[in-house]
Design a protein that fits this description.
7 helices; alpha/beta; single chain; 7 strands; Rossmann fold
């Protein structure tokens, strides 16, 4: 039986763990050939690719350290070398800009270097990944930028991180306008608090933190990576062909009464 993403090529950055891993696995389950972008954990990326292969999908690890000049060009050069070993179709159909520095110091302690690193990884890299993908990206393609609920909620302790996600949403809006004539959709997907390895230290083993985080969401629980992956799969599919330039709230209804 045909799958919704049969014959499609996908790149997911930051896919060796957490939300990126869940998205990569879901896109592969839906039929896509998936490049597992990673920065410094080749072992973890290999495990994701192996798990996808064991489930009958197609995936390969792709070294993709971000945050320095030339990072996007290096990523796509590696992609071009590796994609042909896994499919006869070149180019890319789905780009998921997920890799990011996930937190930031507060106003009183953040340094200029930390600020620059945040924007280089969370904003500059996605912009140039799309720029460098332009000749590789097929018509009717999909770009999904992983934003955050912090772009619309005041959270002063991590305000610089939130600012990067607000900037990413602005990129989404403009890229949707620019690429619309090619039937390429561009959307942001904004999770709230999700139970990932990144949040494990303060969330996973602390019942009080779990209760607090759950209380923020109208749906009464903390998000899971597969919650976000399901929405990403929809945005990547033909069913979402008439949705572009939008930021999709995936917070479980966080702070709706505020």
């Amino acid at each position: 039986m045909p799958k919704p993403l049969d014959g499609k090529n996908a790149l997911v950055t930051g896919a060796s763990r957490g939300i990126g891993r869940a998205i990569a696995q879901r896109l592969a389950a839906d039929g896509a050939t998936v490049a597992i972008g990673y920065a410094n954990r080749p072992d973890a990326a290999d495990q994701v690719a192996a798990a996808i292969t064991a489930d009958g999908g197609t995936a390969f690890p792709l070294p993709a350290p971000l945050g320095t000049h030339g990072d996007a060009a290096a990523l796509w050069a590696a992609y071009d070398r590796r994609i042909t070993a896994h499919t006869t179709r070149t180019g890319v159909d789905i780009i998921v800009n997920n890799a990011a520095i996930g937190r930031s110091p507060d106003l009183h302690t953040i340094t200029e270097t930390q600020f620059d690193e945040l924007f280089a990884t969370n904003v500059r890299a996605p912009l140039f990944i799309v720029q460098q993908a332009h000749r590789r990206l097929h018509d009717n393609g999909r770009i999904i930028n992983i934003s955050s609920g912090t772009a619309r909620l005041a959270m002063p302790d991590i305000m610089a991180y939130g600012a990067t996600k607000g900037a990413l949403d602005t990129l989404t809006l403009n890229l949707a306008q620019l690429l619309g004539p090619r039937n390429i959709t561009v959307n942001s997907l904004a999770p709230g608090i999700v139970d990932t390895d990144t949040n494990a230290a303060w969330l996973r083993d602390d019942p009080d933190a779990q209760a607090w985080a759950s209380s923020l969401a109208a749906l009464g629980r903390v998000g899971r990576p597969d919650d976000i992956a399901g929405i990403a799969a929809f945005l990547a599919s033909d069913d979402a062909r008439w949705v572009t330039g939008r930021t999709i709230d995936a917070t479980g209804g966080a702070l709706l009464g505020v």
